[in-house]
Every structure is written in structure tokens, then in C-alpha cells.
Design a protein that fits this description.
Length: 320
């Protein structure tokens, strides 16, 4: 695994760090972009009417907003109370809870789906505690969709020339003078091992965020600027639609050009080029998604939890 650091006054594990980082982001643009992101087919496959999904570490809440507008029951949890409070004021119908993903304020077996994108790698002592909580709140037939930074062959090569990272066999609390801990990146075998420790069985993986993973290579930064421009242009050109709740919804269907499907949606089903994209992802994508189910044969059964949200530090914003 790779331990990564930043030149910051605050560690990446504080709400203040993330709230400062999110200030430059356009919330409505992020909500609109969900319709064309690489993860959308995965949500289409698992998020069905009647199922309840928890997003652990929902940040600005763009996934919660998008799929709630589509009529699904989604609950967003994050430790950034101020950010969730602002989102609640803008969209009071959303189901939001402030809390800790390593100490979830929910009953055991409460959710059909648990999604967490780029969260558990920020625990310097390691992700297993948070993964065990994810296992606990899932129903026996539930599914965990979790992504973490991928310690790819490309990242392994680039790390040889960097001072702000350290290669490790297991998480530790050792630092680098003048730097603050930010996150870990994992190889697939490393993270699968931690999922097993938490009582979870990995049934599928796929690499995504390919351009972001390759951005340090010459010319890729320029390509990312073009992608950002294309995304903004497409969003502005699409006619707005309105959901049953009265909220604007970005159209999710429609046939897109091949270049769009490859670069924006990272559609690996495109003939020939999709296989190349898959290989680029395995070689250097930024993130790896793990699709997991509770392992009934695990030696780590889920621990009990109080039925009261308040007893585990959670604060519900709106009807949960």
C-alpha cells in the first residue's frame, strides 16, 4: 500500500479540511454530472424501487440529491455537519445524518445498499473499523459498493520520484516532517484482504477515473481540461426536465458519441477501444471499485448497535 501526505495545516481527516476543499465546487453541476459518470451503470444495476441505500461519507450530497430526485430512498451521512446543514437548508426533503462512518448511528441490517466513494482510505489507523460498520448495517442479502485509491502500476512507478508518499505493508502512524497524512492507496489484493477481515466477500472489481489516474503524465492535464469543457458544454445544452418532486433532473438516457462514452462515461463496452480503456484503467486508474456482499462464513460477525441514532453521535437532518 502507499501512504500519501499533503502540505496542509490540517490533516485530511477533519471536517474543516474537506469543507475548505469543497468551497470551489459547483453543487448543481456535480448533481447533473452524476447522469454520465462511470458509476451510473452500477447504481442502475443495484438501486431498485423499495431498496434503501446509505451513502457513507456523502460530502456535498450530489449522489443523494440525484438519486432522491429519481424517486429512490437514499440516506446521506457525513461528519461535515456544516456542509450537511447547508444542503438541508437548500433541499429540506433530503434524508441526511451527521455522523462517523466508523461508528454508524443505525440499526444492524438497516440497508440494502451501502455506497462509499473515497472515504475509508483517510483513516490513518486503517479502514477495517469502518468496513466492519458497513458490514453490520447491511442486510444479509445487501451489497457494499466501495471505492478507494488504487495503488496501480503507474502510481507505484511515480511514487519512486516523490517525497510526499511512503510504501508500506500495513497502516501505521509514522509521519513525514512538514507533511500531514492524507490517504492510503491499495492494491486489489491488499484491500480485498481488509474486506475479508471485516466479514465481506468481494464479488467484483473495476477500475475507474482513468484520466485522473494518468493526469501526471505529459499531455493528460490538457486532456482533462478538454473533458471539463465538454462536460460543461453538454450540461448547458441539455434541456432541463423536472422530477415528480419538482426538482431539476438531468436526462440520463440517450445515445452519446463514442468519444464521450470513452472519456466521460468510461464505457468499456465500446468495441476495441473499450478493451484499451480497461487496460489503461488496470494500469493507472485513480480509483478501484469493490462490489461486496456479507460473508455468512466469516469469523467476524457484525456487532450489535443501539436503535437510537443519538446514542452513537448521529444527528438527523429531516425525516430519515
Amino acid at each position: 500500500m502507499l501512504k500519501m501526505f499533503l502540505r496542509e495545516t490540517e490533516a485530511g481527516g477533519t471536517p474543516e479540511f474537506w469543507e475548505r476543499s469543497w468551497k470551489t465546487l459547483d453543487f448543481e453541476a456535480m448533481v447533473a454530472a452524476v447522469a454520465t459518470q462511470p458509476l451510473r451503470p452500477m447504481f442502475t444495476r443495484f438501486l431498485k424501487p423499495g431498496r434503501i441505500m446509505l451513502e457513507g461519507g456523502c460530502g456535498l450530497g450530489h449522489y443523494v440529491s440525484y438519486y432522491s430526485d429519481q424517486g429512490y430512498k437514499v440516506i446521506g451521512l457525513d461528519f461535515a455537519h456544516r456542509t450537511l446543514g447547508e444542503l438541508h437548508r437548500k433541499r429540506p426533503a433530503l434524508r441526511l445524518v451527521t455522523g462517523d462512518v466508523a461508528r454508524l448511528p443505525f440499526q444492524s441490517g438497516a440497508f440494502d445498499i451501502y455506497y462509499s466513494g473515497g472515504v475509508v482510505e483517510h483513516f490513518e489507523h486503517g479502514p477495517v473499523e469502518a468496513l466492519r460498520e458497513a458490514r453490520r448495517v447491511l442486510r444479509p442479502d445487501g451489497v457494499l459498493l466501495i471505492s478507494v485509491p488504487y495503488y496501480s502500476p503507474l502510481r507505484r512507478f511515480l511514487a519512486l520520484f516523490k517525497r510526499d508518499c511512503r510504501r508500506l505493508r500495513r497502516p501505521d502512524l509514522k509521519g513525514i516532517e512538514g507533511l500531514k497524512f492524507f490517504q492510503y492507496a491499495f492494491t486489489r489484493p491488499e484491500f480485498k484482504r481488509r474486506l475479508r477481515q471485516a466479514g465481506l466477500k468481494t464479488v467484483e472489481t473495476f477500475a475507474y477515473s482513468v484520466l485522473w489516474g494518468w493526469k501526471e503524465m505529459p499531455g493528460v492535464e490538457l486532456a482533462m481540461s478538454v473533458v471539463h469543457w465538454a462536460r460543461q458544454s453538454r450540461r448547458k445544452s441539455q434541456p432541463a426536465t423536472v422530477s415528480a418532486s419538482g426538482k431539476p433532473v438531468t436526462p440520463a438516457g440517450g445515445r452519446s458519441g463514442m468519444l464521450w462514452r470513452l472519456i466521460i462515461s468510461e464505457d468499456t463496452s465500446v468495441p476495441i477501444f473499450g478493451k484499451i480503456l480497461r487496460l489503461l484503467g488496470l494500469a493507472g486508474a485513480n480509483l478501484m471499485m469493490y462490489v461486496c456482499i456479507p460473508d455468512p462464513d466469516s469469523a467476524n460477525p457484525p456487532s450489535p448497535c443501539s436503535e437510537q441514532v443519538e446514542e452513537r453521535g448521529g444527528v438527523a437532518l429531516g425525516a430519515v
